[in-house]
Amino acid sequence: MTYPALTPAEQSRYEWQMWVRDFGETGQRRLKAASVLISRIGGVGGTVAMHLATAGVGRLVLAHAGDLRLNDLNRQLLMSTADVGSPRIESAARRLRELNPQVVVETVNENLDVSNVGRYVSQVDLVVSAAPLFVERLAMNRAAVRQRKPLVDCAMYDLEGRLITVRPGRTPCLDCLYPESPPLWKREFPVFGAVASTVASIAAMEVIKLLAGFGKPLENQLLSYDLREMSFQTIAIARRPDCPTCGQLSA
Ligand SMILES: [Zn+2]
After folding, report:
1. What pLDDT shows up at residue 183?
2. What is the 203 CA–ligand 1 centroid distance (Å)?
3. Which of helix, strand or coil describes residue 203?
């Protein structure tokens, strides 16, 4: 595959990151050719989108229904106080285009579920799941595995963050890890914006590595950390041969 050339403005905009070892201009051109679906553009997904836009990922598809509320603003960095009461997705897209007009931003003013997720996953190269509800995360996981697209799944609670990268056929998927949805998972929960930003920044870097093809992605490991204690760990995870989603897939 040939990747699109960079314009002089892009050469300048991305200069500092093109100095990164193993990334360079080739990595930047790969990002320019790439597309990512981000489900929910709140504290985590919005900050992932911000980093992918500033890094020059060519096309971002953002999905999130609903209007901005005042109690979103402790963590949703793409939003402004003046946008309270307006559709969240519009504020996010406007801010991303201000950050980087060279990136194509597409908006979906609905949340992903089993009825629409396959269609949106089919339009991109990679999926970021930043949804608070398990049913939505599992729907994205299943669509990504079915279409053999990488998925980065992020979660947070209180001062804790968690992240896995699913590479269908190579790593466990979300269904391997959670054969049953955790019953206590809620849409609203205690959290600081700084926790959302850490998990989002780690996820964005993981996406950039996967798209540009450098570094070592988080394969067969769950990253888990607790900023209350400043403890960080990676836990080995394995595919379940009887996983209904990925058990039959080969690498
Ligand atoms: Zn699985």
Report:
1. 66
2. 20
3. helix
Using the mean position of ligand 1's atoms as its centre, give its distance from the Cα of residue 233 in Å: 22
- In the reported structure, the alpha carbon of residue 250 is separated from the centroid of ligand 1 by a whole-number distance in angstroms of 12
Tell me if residue 91 falls in helix, strand or coil: helix
The residues facing 63 across adjacent strands are 39, 108
Distance 95 CA to ligand 1 centre (A): 36
Phi-psi map region of 248: left, alpha, beta (phi>0 left; psi -120 to 50 alpha): alpha
CA 225 – ligand 1 centroid, Å? 23
- Report the chain (251 residues): mean pLDDT per 10 consecutive residues: 94 98 98 98 97 98 96 95 96 97 97 96 98 92 98 96 97 92 74 96 98 97 97 97 93 75
Q: Among 11, 34, 6, 13, which Cα is nearest to 212's?
A: 34
> How confident is the model at residue 251, as a pLDDT?
75
Helix (H, G, I), strand (E, B) or coil at 216: coil
Q: How far apart are the first and last CA of the chain?
A: 21
pLDDT of 116 reads 97
CA distances from 12 to 15, 26, 195, 208 (A): 5, 15, 31, 19
Ordered structural domains, the chain, with CATH: 34-152+182-216 (3.40.50.720)
- Please list the residues that pair with 62 across neighbouring strands: 38, 107
pTM over 0.85: yes
Residue 57 CA to ligand 1 centre (angstroms): 28
Look up residue 12 and give its two tokens. Answer: 């300048």
